């Protein structure tokens, strides 16, 4: 973490679930969106094309592993994957389990609220960490 003006260079960005020298997986602290995670590049870079082909593949393999775990745990209506970076131009992917009765569905979570939030039980962080680590190990033993 190095860029002084970048929030994701200066903070973890949430509850740390897994990390290596290249990226980290965090859980966003959100009561409305259970399981909302981010995969965050550890060095400062704004775009996927700032990465070489092997790095792009590595990052996306981690995004897919997180999606796989969250789908199995929460069984959402839909999964949202997004890499926007308009507000924080540091490469990161949002992995968001979505439910038909969540406050914004079918709109993005940053859109207009359509209904009150229904709070869901979250998997304890220790168990989520373990499931993500196992998924990453099973998909790519080198991670």
Radius of gyration: 15 Å
Helix content: 25-40%
CA-CA gap between termini: 20 Å
- Helix/strand-derived category reads alpha+beta
Task: Explain what you see.
It is a single chain. It is built from three helices and five strands, in the order αβββαββα. The protein is an alpha+beta fold. The chain has one domain (7-139): HIT-like (HIT family, subunit A, 2-Layer Sandwich). A hairpin with a 3-residue loop joins strand 1 and strand 2. Helix 2 crosses helix 3. The longest helix has 22 residues, at 53-74. The model has no long low-confidence stretch (mean pLDDT 92).
Topology:
Layout: H1 7-10, E1 15-19, E2 23-27, E3 37-41, H2 53-74, E4 78-82, E5 92-98, H3 125-139
Antiparallel strand pairs: 1-2, 2-3, 3-5, 4-5
Helix pairs in contact: 2-3
List keywords for this structure.
143 residues, HIT family, subunit A, single chain, alpha+beta, five-stranded antiparallel β-sheet, globular, 3 helices
